[in-house]
Amino acid sequence: MTYLVAGLRLLAYALVFALLAGPHWLALKLGRGRFAGHAPVWLHRAFLRLFKVRLTVTGTPPAPGEAALVIANHISWLDIPVLGAVRPLSFVAKSEIAGWPVIGTLARLQRTVFIDRARKRHTAVVNTEMSRRLRAGDLIVLFAEGTTGDGTRLLPFRTSLVGAARAAITEGGLDRVRLQPLCIAYTRRHGLPLTRAERPDIAWYGDMELGPSVKLFFERGPIDVSVTWGEPVAFAAGTDRKAATALAEASVRRALQEAVTGRPVLPETPRADAPPVAAAPPILIPAATA
After folding, report:
1. N or C, which end of the chain is more exposed by having fewer CB within 10 Å?
2. Low-confidence residues in the chain, pLDDT < 50
3. Where are the domains of the chain?
């Protein structure tokens, strides 16, 4: 994509933003409505169409109006328009983003929940806000790795913000909250499978600056991205937070491996001389709330 073409497409995107931003802001001020929820979706879909990002969605998402804490991996700044184009939702993001030009405005219009990672006590404040959103039936995306990866490997999921699910139960009177694993994988460019060496070109991680990453995206051309909804994890009052997070991480890890290799992950076959393994005890939904 030449700089002229990229500039024209950015101009078209800015026009779409200008048409949607005012009514969207007004809808947020007057109370949440259909337009307030769907305006960001239309904006993100315009971005994907303009910049030739082809999105494929598989799996079963939460039903419309069903609250869920979405536990996702994080690869690039491109994850935001990709997931935002799927359906109305909000994100949890580091507080520094709120002050970024343009991007901070977009994040606020998306109703992003900002967390100050330098203040440990702020996690409790964020959990309270997230639980309020969950009680209202929102979908909230939590990038559980706490940072971005290179698109090939999955980093360990953090459990602290999953506490919002428990807060929604104890403070909001919900019986349970849906933890929804979600995998993002960038699989092709110009229709050809990405190699392991090429995936970091799409990723934005480590000490990479945002500007060069965006520039590379414009230069390299069309991308295919796969979004996979995993099997939901029911989080109830007695659920072990770490165990529930581990199940979500395993689901995302399996989906990422299948996406980048193009092959299904087969269950391990036990050796003939291996001792029998006892069935794992139930860890998610206590009998009292099942």
Report:
1. C
2. 269-271, 274-290
3. 52-261
Contacts of 107 (CB under 8 A, 6+ apart): 91, 93, 97, 98, 100, 114
- Residue holding tokens 């029911």? 234
Facing residues of 229 across strands? Answer: 182
Beta strands in 47-199 (DSSP E): 53-58, 68-72, 90-94, 113-115, 139-143, 176-189, 192-193
Query: Contact, 172 vs 129, CB < 8 A?
Result: no
Fold of the 52-261 domain: Glycerol-3-phosphate (1)-acyltransferase (3.40.1130)
pLDDT for 175 equals 83
Strand partners, 189: 192, 223
CB half-sphere exposure, 106, CA atoms < 13 A: 19
Closest CA to 160 of 146, 179, 175, 174: 146
Query: 58 pairs with which residues across the strands?
Result: 228
